[in-house]
Amino acid sequence: MEKLNIVSFRNRPYHVDCVQWNEDGQLALCLDAHVHIITPLIVGLNSKEDSYKHIGFSKPAPEPELKATVIANGDDVQTSFLNEEGYRCANWSQTGLSVSQSCLLVVVTTKHRVLLYQGSTKNPLDNDWQLFVNITDKIKEAAIDHNYATKINPHHTLYAQWSKKIIVTPMASKPCLLALTNKAGDLCFWNLTSTTVEHLDTITPHKSFVNLVQWSNWKKGVEPNTYLAFTVSSSTNGTVALSSVLVKISVDEHLITTVEDILVSVIHMWFEEGSAVTTLIKVQDDFEQEASHLRIALSKGINVSFISLTVDGNAVHLEKEWVSYCLQHSGLGLAGGSWLSDFDFRCYTMEGEGMQFHFSAEDMLVLDEKEQAIISTKLVQKYKYQWMEEQAKTEEDDIISASDALPYIFGACDSLKHMYTAVFFTMRPTVDVHYRVESLEEANLTFILQKPRASEIYSLLKDIDTYVNNPNFCNFHFILVFLKPVKGLIREILDYLIEDDNILPIKMWYEKLVECMASGPTLVGNQDLTKSIYCESSTIASRIILNAELEMKNYRLIAYESEFTQICAAAKEKTTTHFLFYIFYFALQLPDERFGQFSSDDRNVLLLLCDYALYLGINQLREQCMDIYMKLQEKCKMDLYPEIAYCSSPDGPFSLVSREKCHVCDEPVSAIGDSNLAQCAAGHFWELCSITRKVLYSPHTRKCSNCGSKSLQPSNDNSLTDIILNHCCRCIYCGGSLLKT
After folding, report:
1. Which of 175, 186, 205, 685 could be bridged to 241 by S-S, CB 3.0 to 4.6 A?
2. What residue stretches are annotated with the Transcription factor IIIC putative zinc-finger domain (predicted)?
3. Quick check: 215 and 190 in contact, CB under 8 A?
């Protein structure tokens, strides 16, 4: 990724910290005229694909122009309405919240509209971003009155930030709150639903414009079914407020999680005596530990300030003071930063300097000069390269005699595992008079590799062991598939491990996954079919491999290609075998009378799946197939002697039998090998359901958001087919979300 060609733009951001990664490995770059969504891709030297995808989206039609009126009071002037509408900020939610099961992007415009965008609901693979909802009018309706003087239109939104997801159980829906700030000093809390957002509560921690807000993670509250999070907000009058958000949660029988009640309160206010405006807030916590802490980093003018607060139950201990560091080489403050751990904070000044601080458990603040030198060296290399590129493109008459420039950083953000940093910067010539107007200066997006390649390989191998084998993770695949951002993590790890001249790191990573994939079924007897299908330790590894194969579709591991192809084939076979084993096991545990009551569709599904297992030559499923054939023959009066005989003594490859009729000409339909395609005797082609192997004759299907495989939609008739489809709520191959088409 660090070798990715620098992407150039001709706009400036409204705020610093304008670059944001999401959990799917995408970047949002919020500039004053456009919001750009950039997805770095893994491509090889011989690939014709671009090394990144770059898209944007359009704003909805603007509101009607205001009629010309005489303004007698200067406080009533709204300068934002005198210019063309641009963008103030754009922030990502966590993944899995949109209809397409990806991230939502909340955007605040310079005319104070609040717009929510999501990926395509029909085909998430085409990167088409669409407006999900415009909540500007709802915000005005939910505005509250104030007992102090405010500016005109105090409800106007200035900033927006998503909370983390509230996770009650892995399978239940995961609500998320949206915090909005406004001119009056309010924090407005909204709850995300399947179709819109609903107002929950509003508090007023400040008495002036609230320019920033950040969330902590959620932790369990003291009372049952309650969850607690904290917000840190700042105002243009210099104050910083800590507020608590306590919600009461319920989960119904359909695993729908509802926010029943909310209690929001201001805990403490800092810097009331007056100080510089806060331009950056970053929050870190360790709420998963018994003795938990909330750590806050602020940029206020030329000072970077830190504080660590102890959280005990629902209470926060406020006896500690801020610890500050005065920036020696900056007059503008920080442009971006990220917590690397509970104690380390990496940041970048607007003047282009990289820094790293260690804020110890004893509240000692130390500038890590060694790391600072490493970061600054990498930045200087990027600056020099970019300035040479700009000089090479400049016409000869305009070249500056003193060929030198200074960098200015507008935003910087770390990737999920902090292996890469995206930096948005510009180069300005060090002369009194610019040889071109500032609006024509290019700003550039580049990437920095923070950790030397292969240095983290053993840590990544240890992570695989943790994911797969550690019982304390309680079937980590529930967490990996249903909670964790799989796509973004795998994309970052692969980009880090792949080297054209060193195949060893990626080879070691795949070999570790193959080792973890070797175990057999361990969840026999589990009553939860969904858990059995998705939580087997060995399939964690196989689905990671299949996701990695999708990410590497434009990259050839030339020195490892044959082994890689075999590994991917083995992973798909493992996942298929595992899925069929538990479907057969579930069916065989049903009472005998239930078998006799199967509909023709249910019988067909069992036959299709058994035929598929025998065709693939999966020997460990042959005994289960024979039991199902015998049970169907006995209870449903079916003639299945050829299938039973083949299971007893297989002789050569199994010949697939036509179990369905063509919906066009009524001719028999047969699957084409092990693919998800079928053809009738008259030549009509059909797609097959990846779960039941039935013909997809209806346009109302489900499609995997990751690999594109299709399946039937559940019909809610409590048949065996419906039970299987309901329990297979994710793609059985890669674990991607299944979206209705």
Report:
1. 205
2. 659-737
3. no
